[in-house]
Amino acid sequence: MPPCNPDNLPLADLDWRSLLPLAGRGNAALARYDGMLQTLPNPAVLLSPITVNEAVLSSRIEGTQATLDEVLEFDAGMESADVRRGDIEEISNYRAAVQGAEDALVDRPLSLGLIRAAHQRLMQGVRGRDKEPGAFRTDQNWIGRHGDPIERARFVPPSPLVLQGALENWERFLQAEGEDPILQTAIAHAQFEILHPFKDGNGRIGRMLIPLLLYRRGALSRPMFYMSEYLEANRAEYYDRLLAITDTGDWEGWLRFFVNALIAQAESNLEKVRAIRDLYEAMRRDFVEVTHSQYAMAAVDAFFMRPVIPAPAFAQAAGFNNRVTANNMLRQLNDAGLIARVREGGGRVAAIYALPQLINITEGRRVL
């Protein structure tokens, strides 16, 4: 199979008029979600579990098996099975790469340099660290079953001889202002996956780009819209639609898939954000009623930032002057059923507590 020849951007041969009604529905769904986002008193705190779950799901598409519970427990210092440790490290890197890219967008455009920096952080010290993190490939890669030669590849990305020019064309498209934001994001994501510019980690970087580009184009007030839940649940169609672009030139089929995915994800995210907001407000009332403490509000924030948290980290995050007072509050909250103790403390082993309602909402197990 020869390397594919990527289309030049912007695309010239699409029936844009037929896509605009769907794009309009996508923009309306995204606006409803973003409107809810703007009502949150502290989005970074309230949506912290959702950002962790995005890292879990985006990494799962690439073969990791770790769950949200396992990642949160690992962050809290609970031992994980050795087989999961590598997965959790990859997920942690994804979170760090996303945060670094979001911070960089404050004073930098969405560029090839920013993408390379995100990739370098993504691959640091994990599987793929020997595949030139932060550098675009200079040799041919291909996608297929493990061990298959290029002749049996399912997809062969562009030759390295044309890759740099295609990336520069892609970067110019990223920075264009005339396209519909959602259609532009859909095309940019697909083209990145087609170019497959890194030796590893392309899928995760490509999905990371989705909220960054929507934010840069003003479709989001914060880069906090994640689609991996839908894409992971519909993985086969996701890959098939991407392959159809290079196999048959079916950009329209991809765009319709992507926008419908965005609409479905926006509706799901809206319900989750609403449920998280309602839980936050309820917990603020309940923590005060149970503890009558000046630290009650900060205690709620501590659990929303880290839904599974060791007692010492809770004390520090909530601003307690001493651990005894913090531990007394944790006991009160646990006895009232507002939080759950997931590990007993003793000696040098810290007790660990969780906010199960928040984890359930994040994973979609139960929306209040």
How much helix, percentage-wise, in residues? 55-70%
Beta-strand segment tally: 3
What structural class do helix, strand and pairing data support?
mainly alpha
Poorly predicted runs: none
Mean pLDDT across all amino acids: 94
Instruction: Provide the spatial order of strands within the biggest beta sheet.
Output: 1-3-2
What is the architecture of the largest domain at the second tier of CATH? Orthogonal Bundle
Please provide the ordered H/E string of secondary-structure elements: HHHHHHHHHHHHHEHHEEH
SS field, number of helical segments: 16
CATH topology of the largest domain: Fic-like fold
The name of the CATH superfamily of the largest domain reads: Fido-like domain
Q: Radius of gyration in whole Å, from Cα? A: 22 Å
Number of domains: 2
> What sort of overall outline do the alpha carbons produce when their principal axes are compared?
globular
Largest sheet, if any? Answer: 3 strands, antiparallel
Strand content: under 5%
